[in-house]
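Subject: mismatched residue count in predicted assembly?

I count 438 residues in my input, but I want to confirm that the predicted structure covers every chain. Input:
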Amino acid sequence: MFPTRLLVLCIALALFVVSGCESSQAKVEKVVFYENVDAGLKIYESSNWILDSEVSSKPFNAIFKQDNVRVIVSIVPSVKSLDQIKKELNLDRDYVQLIEETADSISFQLNEKESIRSDIYLESKIDETLVLTFFTPVEGYEANQEIMEEFKNQIELTY
Amino acid sequence: MMKKKMMISVALGLLLITSTVQAADPEQNQIEVVEEEVVYTGDMAGYQEEVEASVDLELINYVDLFQAVAVELTDDEKEKLLLLVEFVSQSNEKLEVLLQKEKFEEAAHLLEKYNIEIEEVQDLLSSDKVAQEVDDEEIAELKEVFTEKTSMRGVNLQLLLEREDLPDSAKAGIEKALANQAKALEKRQAVQERKEERKALKAETKASINEQDDDKEVIDLEEEASKPIDKKNAQAQKVHKKAEKGQNRAAEAKEKAKQNGKGNSDKGNGGKPTNPGRS
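Triage response: the counts match. Full output below for your records.
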């Protein structure tokens, strides 16, 4: 009698563990707030981002905004380096004040008086590049940093 | 005995299942990350050579958007104009290179954007809002810079139009650009004429103020009219001060140079005031 009870207990315990795993997986499932099948892009909900405008579809370019933060989401149909982006935007010229640069990101301020900061992040895939270009007021940048970081993590390329 | 064995094996089996379920996710993630890194570094080298290409058509929309958002978010009218002029001059430079290299297809794309930008700046330069926020002198200066930066001296647009191998799309763009240049020139002349007129008007109002001191409206006018003059006076004083400072510095430098010159008279040019004066 005793071993069967233990057996039942074991099964119950195992079931509990398995169901626990499942429920935690369900929690991770996020709400898609923007999807573009042609571009192979999914953005999950975070903060109060809204779509500002879809500008072009080939290559894909769209603007999203959240209060005073803007982001251009671009999917370029080939691999681009940060140098290529920098060159096209002429970031070596006077109108730009460099703040910081890494292998796949660059932050700068647009001219001296004005208080706009821009952060560009690159993510290269096999045959395309995701370019995220954030615009934030320099004042209150710290507060918006988290919002931007969150948005970055909610993007999924489904090519 | 049998039951015990069975029980143990069932427990072991369950443990095995749960552990594999847990292990599955991180494994997948790891594989993904590794893939990404390999692709990223592998392709970087190959693309380094292409950086030299003058305009990247795949990025033209993106650049356009970047500039549009930057301009849109800039509240200050003067800053906005400066940014726009900067962007126009960027397009101008790229266009010159493309047209010189006879890359007409790419030029046609950029010409479209360039013409829109030029019209935008022209509209802004003559808008009431800018006139209110930016003073006349600065507007005149900006106009100078703008005409200078959009003159396209490196390319003869008129001559390009006569070429037979010019695609229609580029042709239309070049025609528009030429029209814009003509328009800019006209406006510039009109502005200069207006300046003259305003000067004459100011002189007139001043004369009339002297005649009718009691009229309140005219006094207001006088105040307004005298504002720019005060500014100019202040600026003139600044310039004067700077000049004074410069003179003092030059005198100091001379003094130093004399001393130096005495010290090493063998070296010849130690006595010249120009060299030490710069430091």
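Chain A touches chain B through 47 residues (CB under 8 Å). Marking this ticket as 'not a bug'.
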